[in-house]
Amino acid sequence: MLIVVLVMGTITAVTAAERITIASGNFTEPQIIAEAVKYLIEENTELEVEHVNNFSGSSLLHSAFINDDVQMYITYTGTQFTGVLGMEVTTDWKDRAKVQDYVQTQFDKQFDAYWFDAFGFNNTYAVVVQRKLAEKHKLTSISDLAAVADSMSIAMDNTFRERVGDGYDALIETYGFKFKRPVSMDYGLMYRAAAFGSVDAAVAYSTDGRIAAMDLVVLEDDCNFFPPYDGALVASNSILAEHPEIKEIVQPLIGNIDTVTMQYYNQLVDVDYMEICEAAKLLVEDIAQ
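Request: output the structure for the sequence above.
Response:
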């Protein structure tokens, strides 16, 4: 971009850095990843990257992208598979590679967008319980809850409570048992409620750092109920045509952030109160080693 300014009576041309915008949702994980992408691009190009965060829903995030208010955003395969693409979660659509291939193809076809390969972590839903409860009842899988669920409470956010196909109603139908008391609860409160026994179980996000920090146990999804939610970067084909180097620049992140790693960086922010931009920079540096 060329800006013309008047300095001491002389017309001077000043080249301003081109700015692109990346967006993320309203929780820690996509914000860390977006900051990592921003950091890599700004360190390796003359581009300025604006990070707009706290989008309250995937549809709003995608609308901003379609309207070119943002040129890149962080999202998840399962989220856009059932949301923007309107697909139903069935047994045939539980394979991570198959779902990724579908959203990549459809985003290119329908939205002229490039869906990058996954970062490596699968932030799907997970049923968690206190460690002492797991040990007492020998709980290692969700199926093990069948013997005790009718006396248990389970917390979940409203989104999971209301989801069709991969929400609470489908979960209990798949596993064939019901909980005594399902409770809708703000996502931020669920971990503490589970850790301190206010509820017996919770439907959490598998990469959340508070799972390890609060010594909660993730029960195996032995019926393969939850669909894949592989985190990924989406970018407009037009911005990549203008700046093809972006693909190579963000490549170190692709496939190199597994679930345990993502849990750790989420914990740095959500539990240890590290600034998101600092956690992102540390993630990039650690991957580079």
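Residues 2-7 have pLDDT under 50 and may be disordered.
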